[in-house]
Amino acid sequence: MTSIDFPADDQGRRSTSAFGKAVVADALRQVDPTGAAAAQREPNWRAGYVAHMRRLVEAGLASPEDWRTIARSGLDSIHSRLVVGDQPLAEWSASSQPPKTAVIKGEAEPLEELVIPYRGQRLKGAELQAQLESWQEAGVLEPGVIDAVLTVAANPEWLRAEGRTIVAVGAGSEMGPFTSLLRWGARVAAVDLPRPDMWERLAGVAAERAGTMTVPTATGEVKDAGVDVTSAVPELTEWLAGLEGQLVLGNYVYADGAANVRVCAAVDALTTGLLRQRPDTALGFLATPTDVFAVPGDAVDFSVAAFAARSKVSKALTRPLRAVSGNRLLTRQYTPGIDPGLNDSLVSQQGPNYALAKRLQRWRATVARTEGTTVSLNVAPPTRTRSVVKNRALAAAYAGAHRFGVEVFEPATSNVLMAALLIHDLHVPMPAHEHPWQDEAAHAVHGGLWRTGYAPRSALGLAALLGLGASRA
Q1: Are 99 and 106 in contact (CB under 8 A)?
Q2: 387-398, pLDDT tens digit by residue?
Q3: 3.40.1360, 3.40.50, 2.40.50, 3.10.450: CATH of 100-291+353-377+411-431
């Protein structure tokens, strides 16, 4: 089947580096021509992309319109440059019939209260509030998260998402809300690759929960479920458009390397097509904490205070470590007093394709909000997912992160917490903010990356060294 691919050059090569440089340059060109030229000239994109991803955020801070222009231009570039066969992605049309439908209705009673698992406990009520406040005190999340989660806890009838069908694209993802939503009795349309073992697992989960799972399938049987979204966007759009209730299109896909750009672009094409047919569709995203974000002055002040309050041993070690590293280790995260600050938690080992794929989602959220669409985009915490722990360096850094004020979550905690924030955002409109970066920051659960005293990358290597033994265990 024909699927989304990168454009070929005159020699037929499909360079992801050339594509990434071009997209970033296109996104910056109207707002920051100098930055656009620098991205286009970057001689080593795989090593140098971090500075240009940072510049995309810096350039957008000058005004709300600059931020939105970068988002629109970046999306336009992706849709015009990626191809399907010999056509641009933007011109993709259906070549076959939409898939058939299979349904599994769970047999359990719905869970009618918000319960978040955490370190062997099941937090609810006063215990949940106490833990949220503890996380805030430790700098693990932004203050708005507490109000949002407690509002959902006080309105447990919201958990069923009555009248909605929540589409989980990437239903098998460890970070997605699939299981939580079914436990609460919601109606979920599950979309993922045609992998029989995965669908056997998901079908078992659905049967044992309280909600209803609807799946696209080639034959009408769950065993034949699954769609490769990179080769079937028009057909999947038609299938989703026929589902009942208000649609909530949740983007929870992930793939390694260049495939991540392809699959995220496919879901974005699905998004634009579905919004044309069902304009009341809401959107859901989980932003990665390992990116660049503008952060409020309160987070800056917290970080500056944390840096000043570090122990005598830490202070004694800081100067020689910075000297031998050329001022790259254990540097202060922010200049005191700036508002907003700029948190740069990009992890260079994750690569430019991962960074671009996640930035695409943030761009779509910005543009959709501007056009009046309900959007839930929240920064998810660092989490010990399979995709993280299989990267030895990142797994070690996560194991040692607590020594620098960063908490890494288990998937079970992240799943329920972020699903609760999705439910909140579907019921409570986002307040009008002066600048779009504040929409991203409102309910961020960054694990402490925004509020640690050290610039995250300046502590990453030491965190990995300190966590090496724990990660092996």
Answers
A1: no
A2: 777 777 788 888
A3: 3.40.50
